[in-house]
Amino acid sequence: MPALSVEQRRAFLAEPRIAAFSVSAGEGRAPLTVPIWYAVEPGGEPWIITGRRSRKGRLIEEYGRFSLMVESVRPRVRYVSVEGPAERQPLTEELLRAMTERYMLPEAVEGYLAAAWAARTELDDAVYVLRPEHWLSADLSEHGGTTGHRVV
Question: How remote is the C-alpha of 68 from its chain's centroid?
């Protein structure tokens, strides 16, 4: 399976998909892995929003790094996985709007923004920027995309 180029990986991540977020859950535990919204600007680094007091946030704060894995199965099987250290930044209304507009239908943006901004202090929401150190990716296009692959 050929790996994607740097440009292909970044273009793939720029599409609004749901990522599988993983962070160490400590000795004797499998990593915490959950779906999450993420964003990345062209040429930039992926970032997420989560509460500092949430389980995800506490584990990022403790271990200092996380990974994201994003995949597609149509029109062809591809994935990008990226892992590295995290840098916490304050959540701003501008960043919350950018994330919301990436995932929500236009008619739902303002209502979601109002509720999310009002609730941001409950878990002490913050932005965590992923500083990529390790990448994995694959494109199965040369094997016929989803042809021959079972997609359920």
Answer: 5
